[in-house]
Structure formats: C-alpha cells, structure tokens
User: Which sequence fits this backbone?
C-alpha cells in the first residue's frame, strides 16, 4: 500500500467561495444559516431555514462546460479549481491518465429535475427539453463535469451515499492511490439546495423547525434543545496524491490520509446505531494502524438530530472514553449533505495545521445523553497530530477517515 | 416581419443562447468550426428557433444539412414564407 497525502483543498460553502473564507468564518464562530422564504410556499413543510451558497458568477466557467452543469457541478468546479491551484497540479499531470476523479452527490440536480417536470407533466411533451438536461440529472454529473473541465483522463468514481458521500469519495480516492491504480485523485462531494431536500428531513421529523425566527441558533449539535437538521449546499474537493508523486514535484502537503472505513448499518434505514458507528470507528483505527489514544481530535458528523447525536456520542464515548476533544461544524453552516464530509475534512485539516480546535456552535447546554464525550465551548489551541472524521448517512451508511499531520517522514 | 427583422431575431436568439459574439455571426460562419457549436448545441438550436418563431422544425430532414449561419437564415425565412 502506498502512502497518500492531501496536496490541495478547495471549498464552496454557505460562507462563499474558498477555503479561506470558510475557515475564517468558522474561527469567528459565524453562522450562515438564514430564513429562506421559498420554503414557506410548500404546504406541510415546517422548516424555514437553510444555509445556501451566496451568488457565484458561474460565467467564469466557459459555456462549453457550463451548459451541462447545475449548481452542484458549478460548486464542484470552483472547489476543484481551488484544490488544483493550491496543489500546483499541471495540465499535463491532470490529462496524463494518472489522475482520476471521485466526486459524488446525493442525487442528480434536483433543480433541473424540478424544471423538467414542471414543463413535462402539464404537457407530456419533450419539445422544449434541452440536450444538456440529462447531463445535469445523471448521478455522476459532478464527477463527469469536473473531469471535462480539467481534461482528466483517468478513472471516474461517483459514490452516492447521501451524507456519507464526501467522506466515502475521499476514502475511495485514497484507496485508488494506495493500491497504485492512480497517482492522484480529485475527491469530494457536492450538493445544491432545493426545498425538497429540506422536505426529505421534514417528512421524517428530522428537520429543525423551532428556530425559524432565530435561524442562527440552529442546528444545535449535541445541545439539549436541538430539534433537527438544517439543510445546506456547497462543495468540498481535495486533491489526493501518492506521497512519492507529491515529493517528486515538491507539492505542498496539507495532511496524510492514514485510514478509511465504511460500513453498512442494516439495523434501520434512518436511525443510526451506536454499535455500527463504533464498528466503523474501530475499523478505521485498524486500517490506520493507530490506537484510539493517538487521536487528538474528532470532527463529528452530529447534525443536530435527536437520535443521531446520541448514537454518535455513545459510540465515540465507548471508543475514546470522553478524553478526546470532539466538535461538529454543522452549527456554523448546516448540513451540506454530500459535500459535508469533504468540507468538514478540509476544515479539520486546517485546524490540524494551525493547532486550533473549533467548538460546536450553538452548543449551550449539553444534552445529558450526549455528555459522555469531550465537548468544548471556545476555540482551543492544541497541538493536533492525528484526527478522526465521522460521517453517517440515511440508508444506514457509516464512514470514517483518519488523517495525520505530515511531518516530512 | 421583414426578412431583416427575422434574421436579426435569429441572430439575437442564437447569440443569447450560445453566448456568441455578434461580430462572429456572419452568414458564412460555420456552426461547428467557426461558432463552436457541437451536436448537443444543434439540438438546442432547434428548440431556440422553435420557441422564437413558434414553428415546428425538429423532425425536418433539412435541419440536418445546415452547415452555416446563412443556411439557418435561409431555412427559417423559407419556413416563415411557407406559413404565410
């Protein structure tokens, strides 16, 4: 198995385009959650809040590529451009066949799908359907569009596991390089906001609806008064690369990927189980050949749902015994769905690089059922060498990544 | 609508849809080689023209023979005259 490192990172988040604005906003303990009036137009939908990406100038992407992109691919492209630029990968390296893509989304574009059916259902006609429609709704839309923009000729993966997508994409990309199948992979996830995304959680009573008049106070991961998920959108992309390749071209190394695990939880489609999460964490530790006491920080999935936060706390408590600082970033920018694993991994790497841990926003009173782990309420300076990143998805799919600060070894 | 007005409408519709520079939109401009329109764009070009002129042309064989912008002008003008 070859060693794999992160040489570039890019993000489009509800704070805007770029990793810098993301991390500065997190450090400043800002919330990007806001009231979204269009949610009020949907009968039966209780939540009115979301965290959406500020307007971006998609015309920076040539029309030849943009015509097949919905918002999620536009976000993935901007994030990829930042990751490639930071990593200094050349056109020759991207086009040479040794670079692949692993980028997923929860579904194909919900906005394009909506627009199609709005036209199609009343008329039963496809006369006005554009040729590029399919390319926006296909499940591998983001991966394919990014590959087209950069002329990438290697392998394409488009993992789709809802909220575990971004984490899985990084993990599968890592394995692709570790096994020697590719030299580098652009990995991550992207999703675009649509009211029906929020409805998905609302229908199963998992969306936040009590804070519609105080949007920045929700979601509240691990808090006694949490009431559910706040949907968001964006993209997170990491350029993963074999250590040999990174050294050969003197690329900046942000972190090393040490281990990855993903497991299915057949106990229930929607309710995560602590046992399955614990299994996933322990598998990731084994994959990374790391003991639990070597983990300096855990970036939790914790979305602010009643059951999910308890299950994760229980599992983390069982493995780490309440000794390892743990926080969730969902309070700052909601749940970016398929992008969450990647955006949060990027933020976690930055925390590791700068030696600053960011606490869970809106965690005012820890739920007694989530109190078996090490929460912290203020930014905390701490040398961080090794971290665990958790993500869990509807459909019973858990995923964990372990990363380490690279120390020229 | 005069022929010149129709040509202007064709050019405006295509320029807007495909983000073409008007200076490049001369009658002899070839769709692929000069304007950069590929097979997917040709599908959307038909939809744009159908919407602009309220005509049905998607199934017509003659569409496939169109090579340059002048061919589009000639074709659409012919359809408009036939409809009068």
Assistant:
């Amino acid at each position: 198995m070859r060693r794999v490192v992160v040489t570039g990172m890019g993000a489009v988040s509800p704070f805007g385009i770029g990793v810098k604005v993301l991390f500065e906003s997190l450090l400043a303990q800002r919330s990007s959650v806001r009231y979204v009036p269009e949610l009020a137009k949907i009968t039966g939908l209780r939540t009115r809040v979301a965290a959406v990406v500020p307007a971006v100038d998609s015309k920076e992407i040539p029309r030849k590529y943009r015509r097949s992109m919905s918002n999620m691919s536009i976000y993935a492209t901007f994030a990829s451009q930042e990751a490639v630029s930071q990593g200094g990968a050349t056109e020759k390296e991207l086009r040479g066949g040794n670079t692949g893509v692993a980028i997923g989304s929860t579904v194909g574009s919900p906005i394009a799908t909506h627009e199609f059916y709005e036209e199609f259902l009343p008329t039963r006609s496809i006369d006005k359907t554009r040729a590029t429609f399919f390319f926006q709704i296909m499940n591998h839309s983001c991966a394919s569009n990014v590959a087209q923009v950069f002329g990438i000729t290697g392998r394409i993966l488009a993992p789709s596991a809802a909220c575990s997508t971004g984490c899985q994409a990084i993990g599968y990309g890592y394995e692709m390089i570790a096994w020697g199948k590719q030299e580098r992979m652009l990995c991550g996830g992207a999703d675009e906001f649509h009211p029906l995304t929020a409805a998905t959680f609302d229908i199963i009573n998992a969306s936040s609806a009590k804070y519609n008049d105080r949007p920045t106070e929700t979601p509240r991961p691990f808090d006694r008064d949490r009431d559910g998920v706040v949907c968001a959108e964006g993209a997170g992309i990491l350029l993963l690369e074999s250590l040999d390749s990174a050294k050969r071209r003197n690329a900046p190394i942000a972190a090393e990927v040490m281990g990855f695990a993903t497991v299915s939880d057949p106990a229930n489609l929607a309710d995560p189980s602590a046992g399955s999460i614990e299994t996933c964490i322990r598998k990731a530790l084994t994959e990374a050949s790391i003991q639990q006491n070597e983990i300096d920080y855990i970036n939790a999935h914790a979305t602010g749902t009643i059951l999910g936060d308890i299950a994760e706390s229980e599992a983390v408590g069982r493995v780490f015994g309440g000794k390892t600082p743990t926080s969730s970033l969902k309070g700052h920018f909601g749940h970016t769905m398929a992008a969450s694993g990647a955006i949060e991994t990027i933020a976690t790497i930055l925390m590791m690089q700068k030696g600053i841990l960011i606490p869970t926003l809106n965690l005012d009173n820890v739920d007694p059922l989530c109190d078996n782990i090490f929460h912290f309420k203020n930014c905390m300076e701490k040398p961080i060498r090794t971290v665990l990143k958790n993500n869990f998805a509807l459909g019973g799919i858990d995923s964990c990544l372990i990363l380490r600060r690279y120390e020229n070894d | 609508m005069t022929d010149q007005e129709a040509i202007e409408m064709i050019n405006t519709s295509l320029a807007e849809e495909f983000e073409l520079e008007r200076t490049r939109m001369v009658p002899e401009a070839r769709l692929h080689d000069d304007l950069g329109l590929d097979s997917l764009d040709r599908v959307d070009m038909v939809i744009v023209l159908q919407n602009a002129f309220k005509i049905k042309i998607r199934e017509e064989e003659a569409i496939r023979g169109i090579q340059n912008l002048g061919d589009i002008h000639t074709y659409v003008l012919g359809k408009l005259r036939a409809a009068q």
Remarks:
- Chain A touches chain B at residues 63-64, 67, 127-132 (CB under 8 Å).
